[in-house]
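Bench notes, afternoon.
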Amino acid sequence: MATQELASVDGVISPTTEATIPLPDDGLYRGDGVFEVIRLYEGYPFALHQHLDRLERSAAAIELPVDREAVERELDALLNEIGRADAQLRIVITRGGRRILLIENLPAMAASVRLATVTYQPTVILTGVKSLSYAANMQATRLAQGKGADEALLVRPDGTVLEPPTSTIFWVSPEGGLRTPSLSAGILESITRGHIVQALHVEEGEFDVSDLLAGHEAFLASTVREVQPVASIDGRQFEVQGPRTLEAADAFQRSLKETIAPI
């Protein structure tokens, strides 16, 4: 069932299609700002305080002031307005000082996903920052789709595996161990990734893409996707719904039950 899409702009709630922000604002002009996306389960946000903590860290990294108390107050009002919805919440803080909170319908997710590698060089200044400057990520997705895949897998010029544009990747080595890129590789500190790493034995490191392609299972993880099996990478087929993927999905569901709470 579709959810009513609502927006809160500096505390003023309206249907998303009627919401406006004053211009000029470098959040729009230059992608200068930060954001978070949080999944709602019957109106309850997943790992809310972890997401808000990361929002503050991202903002501090680009010297952007954030009034967390105002965000939490306006979020409370918006969640009360939407009720017990299964949806996603987007929080945007712009350089112009706008606090934008959006209730959005969950995007459709396929049972599995096909990836294509795209060479990408992280920007050191923005490493670990969930900024509005996502043009490179979105272009990577289009390049992958041009190769017949569903989504991109970002790989550094030296062959080190990074992450897809809006999720993190795990894979099972030929020896059966679960692996994922370390934060030092230049990836975002994914909250869903953190829950899986905490729940399972996962080897973190800077791995060459050949290590990933030698594996036999892989999956993506994110707040919105939860755990999504990878069907192929650059045409190389992977086992879908393999035992380690199912184990990770079960672990995430257990973590979910412990983490969902009202604001």
